[in-house]
């Protein structure tokens, strides 16, 4: 029991030594990641729509000739 208590105190001391980032920095990093994936999805959707409409135009002109 004494060893367990000593181990617990050691872990508690190590935990207090850690320099935790502030909530503001963490939220800022999370927001940057979310915005990055949002714009990645937005760009991918735009490319997908562009390919769709170009394919539509290509096949509609191909059948007329």
UniProtKB/TrEMBL annotation:
It comes from the Eukaryota. One of its GO terms (molecular function) is protein transmembrane transporter activity. Belongs to the SecE/SEC61-gamma family. One of its GO terms (biological process) is protein targeting. This is Protein translocase subunit SecE. Its main location: membrane. Keywords: Membrane, Plastid, Protein transport, Translocation, Transmembrane, Transmembrane helix, Transport. The chain crosses the membrane at residues 30-59. Pfam families: SecE (PF00584). One of its GO terms (cellular component) is membrane. It is found in: Membrane. Coiled coil: none annotated.
